[in-house]
Amino acid sequence: MQVSGPVLIGGVPLDAVLVFFFALIASLFLGNLVYLLLRRVLSGRVSRGTARWTAAALQYAVIIGGIYASARYLLDFDPTAFVASLGILGIVIAFSSRQIIQNVLAGILITINRPVRLDEWVIVSGRPPTGLCRVRDLSLTTTILQELDGGLILVPNSDIITRKVISYSRAGLMEVPIPLAIPATADLARVQEIALAAAHDHPLIFPRVGPAERSAAQNLFDLPYMGRLNFDSPGLTMFEPRVQVSSVREDWTRLTVRAWIRQIPMKDSIVSEYLDAVVTRLKAEDLLIEKKPETEPRDG
């Protein structure tokens, strides 16, 4: 009776290959488990960004270590032969996954230079630009942004490095243009007075804000990166609201009120509250009603 030998795959027994795949799955599971546990342990003790990158580094170390150990002891993995084959394999990978490599390298640069950080409010240029978004997660290849309406945008890390990124969180303040239309017959000077007065009365529009907002804004200019930008700790008077005439038509004059705020997530609600206050005051003085020119009575 003839006894058949073990089934081989590339010179490796089939049972060893199966065990290797189970070990691979176990490494991935263990890496994810280590990531979640370390994030939970570090939560509240260090910043979210530090906790995330520390947990991710340990996760990748566990996965890579598990794959190497499994291949080394289950598949008779030869490191010398593997290194010798990297020349040809590297050329193939470079052409087949060039975009992935670019994003991975960009992810490393983001980790080192930190052009964006978790929970920052940014706008990433492009076609089209992202609009105002909050940085929710930073992975090795992708940056996840969340829009004000809750939608998530997955941006390749290479775009973060190569495109223009506007950070409002690091500046700390944001200038908001607020459109306002009035009849062409309205008293423009009085409308401007009302618009500025409403801005000064709002508790979240600079410079006449509460003590907490005032202190938080003044502390922004003491940060190290502000010093590198040659900020000389200016007073808050530079953030006075302004009213500009945008366009003049036959029946309407369009104005733009430019106001500074610090509570960036509340931008829409601040603008809505401000416009309600302005419209109420304009209606009280009948400045939103178009006045018809008076005609002289005909003789006879």
Automatic annotation (TrEMBL):
<feature type="transmembrane region" description="Helical">
    <location>
        <begin position="77"/>
        <end position="95"/>
    </location>
</feature>
<dbReference type="InterPro" id="IPR011014">
    <property type="entry name" value="MscS_channel_TM-2"/>
</dbReference>
<dbReference type="InterPro" id="IPR023408">
    <property type="entry name" value="MscS_beta-dom_sf"/>
</dbReference>
<keyword id="KW-0812">Transmembrane</keyword>
<feature type="domain" description="Mechanosensitive ion channel MscS">
    <location>
        <begin position="100"/>
        <end position="170"/>
    </location>
</feature>
<dbReference type="InterPro" id="IPR006685">
    <property type="entry name" value="MscS_channel_2nd"/>
</dbReference>
<dbReference type="InterPro" id="IPR010920">
    <property type="entry name" value="LSM_dom_sf"/>
</dbReference>
<dbReference type="InterPro" id="IPR045275">
    <property type="entry name" value="MscS_archaea/bacteria_type"/>
</dbReference>
<keyword id="KW-0472">Membrane</keyword>
<dbReference type="Pfam" id="PF00924">
    <property type="entry name" value="MS_channel_2nd"/>
</dbReference>
<feature type="transmembrane region" description="Helical">
    <location>
        <begin position="16"/>
        <end position="38"/>
    </location>
</feature>
<protein>
    <submittedName>
        <fullName>Mechanosensitive ion channel</fullName>
    </submittedName>
</protein>
<feature type="transmembrane region" description="Helical">
    <location>
        <begin position="50"/>
        <end position="71"/>
    </location>
</feature>
<dbReference type="GO" id="GO:0016020">
    <property type="term" value="C:membrane"/>
</dbReference>
<keyword id="KW-1133">Transmembrane helix</keyword>
<comment type="similarity">
    <text>Belongs to the MscS (TC 1.A.23) family.</text>
</comment>
